[in-house]
C-alpha cells in the first residue's frame, strides 16, 4: 500500500446529494478511508471543491496523488483505487 499521505481521500459533497451517498457507500464497501467535507456545513469546503474541480458538481473526490473525480461511479472509484494500489483487482 502507498504511504499514509498517498492513501488520503478527500470527498466534498452534501448530505442531500444522491451521488455523494453512492460514492460514500462505494468507498465504504471498498474499505477505502476518506475524509468527508460537507460543503454546506464546513467553512470553505464548497470553495475548495470548486478550486479542485473547476466546477460546482458534487461529489468531488480527491485522491492522495492529487487526481480527482467528479460524480464518480463505483466502477470509477474502484479503478482508481486499484491504480493507486489501495485495492486489489
Automatic annotation (TrEMBL):
Spans traversing the lipid bilayer: none
Alphabetical GO biological process terms: cell redox homeostasis
GO MF annotation list: electron transfer activity
Start and end residues of each Glutaredoxin domain: 9-65
Listed Gene3D superfamilies: Glutaredoxin
PROSITE patterns: GLUTAREDOXIN_2
A Pfam family matched in the record: Glutaredoxin
NCBIfam families membership: GlrX_actino
Record's protein name: Glutaredoxin
Organism: Bifidobacterium mongoliense DSM 21395
